From TrEMBL:
Classification via Pfam families: 5-FTHF_cyc-lig (PF01812)
GO function terms (MF aspect): 5-formyltetrahydrofolate cyclo-ligase activity; ATP binding; metal ion binding
UniProt organism field: Vibrio chaetopteri
Source taxonomy: Bacteria, Pseudomonadati, Pseudomonadota, Gammaproteobacteria, Vibrionales
Enzyme Commission number: 6.3.3.2
Identification of the protein by name: 5-formyltetrahydrofolate cyclo-ligase
Amino acid sequence: MSPSTRQHIRTLIRGRRQAIRSDQQAHYALDLVERAKQLPELRAGQKVALYLATDGELDTQPMIEWCWQQGIETYLPVIHPFSKGHLLFLRYAYTTPLVHNQYKILEPKLDKQTICPVADLDVIFTPLVAFDDDGQRLGMGGGYYDRTLAPFATNQTGPNAIGLAHDCQQVGRLPIESWDIPLSTIMTPSKIWRW
């Protein structure tokens, strides 16, 4: 499939999620917490990566706070300063200082003391622009999460990857590329999808 088709889908679906009113966003964020409570993958003492929402993404802050209340260690992605196109995951707490990265997304200020190796994370909740009926995920196009998840895609070790999205981000079928990493679980405010 042509990159323009993927870009067209990105534009279309980003428009859908940006059109969600703030009161609806708040409601969906609370619904997401209710879905999270149903996940057997989440248990106290685990290390879980989330992200801070931007560009109309599903608001993860209530879920982050719920994780804190459950004793689940929470980490956020940081763009790797030397390894182009890769992510680091840093511990996130109420007091963590945040800075804007090159995409104007908030992330923890780099502190090597709070880095968690990707292999030590139990769950990575990934943002996405669109997902399809087969669990394929279309991101923003930078490939950060595909590169992060690639080493664990062919075996049963490493973190469990779970996509987070609004229900309106589902499409019938996505054009896929060789580097795309499908997800076995995607969670929306109304449903947990398993493949």
